[in-house]
Amino acid sequence: MDIAEEIPTTGLPQLPEPEFKTFEELESEVRLYCRKFPAVFERAKGAELFAEDGRTFIDFFCGAGTLNYGHNNDFIKARVAEYLAADGISHGLDMYTVAKREFLSAFADTVLRPRGLDYKAQFTGPTGTDAVEAALKLARKQTGRSGLVAFTGAYHGMSRGSLAVTGSRRARRAGGVSGQDVTFVPFEDGPQGPFDSIGYLERLLADPSSGTELPAAVILEPMQMEGGVYPASPQWLRALRELTERHGILLILDEIQAGCGRSGQFFCFEHAGIVPDIVTLSKSLSGYGLPLSMVLFKRELDAWEPGEHTGTFRGNQLAFVAATASCELWRQEAFHAQLAAAIGRLDRFRGELDALAQGLVLRGSGMALGIDLGAAGGPERAERLQRHLFERGLIVELCGRHDEVVKLLPPLTVDPGVLDRGLELLRQGLLAV
Ligand code: PMP
After folding, report:
1. Which of 8, 294, 313, 350 has the fewest CB atoms within 10 Å, i.e. the most exposed one?
2. Are residues 321 and 352 in the same domain?
3. What is the distance in A from the centroid of ligand 1 to the CA of 256?
4. Using CA atoms, how far apart are residues 223 and 108, in angstroms rounded to an integer?
5. How many angstroms separate the CA atoms of 419 and 422, rounded?
């Protein structure tokens, strides 16, 4: 995970093995996940990763939510392979290409129109933070205001603008980021318990002496992931939508990690029946782990002038091809049946964990489950559990303010047998550690 206040570097496994030498010698100390999951991975399929030394791992981390359809999904792979074999354009700046047209049409037909959403799309640089930067910039340009409201526990990226709306002090310090006109408000729920964020915001806006100007936008993850898996309730989201609308504040929902089906619906905000002004998508958008980021916004918010926000890698063509295929998955009944079955299995497991009565707090929605060990051993137990599971062939990542929450993100298309095997390893691990 990327935001824990203190990532315990001393407790991480040392890697003296010869196969790690090249990395240790030549790659920066900034590397992280390789320290938690010390293996050299070579191949992957579905929810499984294969290391060069012959070990197999069940992957419940899935590229931090980038592989919602699993590793090397056959349906998507066939399209990408076909496109490569036909010498399809592989790089096109933001020129018109067949691949982009097909994606835009497929996304509009499959995702937007059936949900009554009339958004325009902007392709940004390849990573999630690029989409967040563009969204914030557009909100400021559109409203002519500079202030932003963000929430405690939020994670929006590691570049300057997105760091400014990210909660982690550690990440902010590393980025040399200070205020940047951002007001932080406690999220609906968090380690300190529930909070009346809406009432607090209401006060800030109503009080001429609150020290806070009318902001350009409120930005949030409808399900906070890095902060510890805290899904916002539909009522809270609706109240926030009502408040922002009433005050003429743009509502930006960052669906980068929890979007593209993770919550059980394509967008997390669908559970609340609201329409945000701006939405950021990335991670699982291409469906194949290929970099693709996009900002969606209401048609009337398109205040951009040509070339005002550019970038060399906007709209990776191979990613467009993969993303078009991913849209097709959403049109297949078999995919929806698979997703519903997987959610059913994960829900059952959640019930079993509850019955273990270990003081675990369980949160999440759809195919995202956070197991909070805050009151049941804390970060130290979570780290031991993560290592224990890795040694037994299961990859899970930690999140939360102090890495005290085990985050499960199996593919939406996970094979039931593999899912059950992984969950059983986890159940045994919780009893053993
Ligand atoms: N927003 C959210 C909600 C995220 O989870 C992340 C990545 N963890 C980002 C933004 C930033 O994405 P990227 O790492 O691709 O820049």
Report:
1. 8
2. no
3. 6
4. 24
5. 5
Separation CA 111–CA 290 (nearest Å)? 19
pTM over 0.90: yes
CB-neighbour burial class of residue 301 (10 A; exposed 0-12, middle 13-18, buried 19+): middle
Give per-residue pLDDT as tens, 156-180: 999 999 999 999 999 988 878 777 7
Atom of ligand 1 nearest to the CA of 162: 10
Distance of alpha carbon 2 from the chain centroid: 11
Cα gap 421→178, rounded to integer Å = 45
Strands 278-281 and 230-231: unpaired
- Is residue 78 domain-shared with residue 67, that is, in the same domain? no
Point out the ligand 1 atom lying closest to the alpha carbon of residue 159: 16
Structural domain harbouring 388: 21-71+334-432
Q: What is the per-residue pLDDT across 33-90, written as a single tens digit (0 to 9) for each?
A: 999 999 999 999 999 999 999 999 999 999 999 999 999 999 999 999 999 999 999 9
The β-bridge relationship of strands 250-254 and 278-281 is parallel
